[in-house]
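pasting for the record
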Amino acid sequence: MSRAVDGTRRKDHRKKILKLAKGYWGRRHSNYKVAKDAVAKALSDAYKDRRDKKGVFRTLWIARINAACRAQDISYSRFIEGMAKAGVTVNRKVLADLAITDPAAFTAIVEKAKAALQA
């Protein structure tokens, strides 16, 4: 019985890799051997960066809250301490959004935190 050298399973697998490499520069998009490594690295980076994105957004929220707090004459760390003492449980994502979209509400929270620090 003859041996199948270029079967559909092999072709389909290579086609899938080359499809994932669409848009890559040079041989990376047309040569299977090179595209295989490029796709593996890209998928690995995508996996890692989906996890890193959470930390990046947290950093952004903290920077926004800090800027809004400084305008109210209080540092970020003192604000968070005051919120803990006041028993206010609002996450950083919502606080950053409030600081941008509803400054009056954010000011009310800052005043509550300041009051808790005074007591």
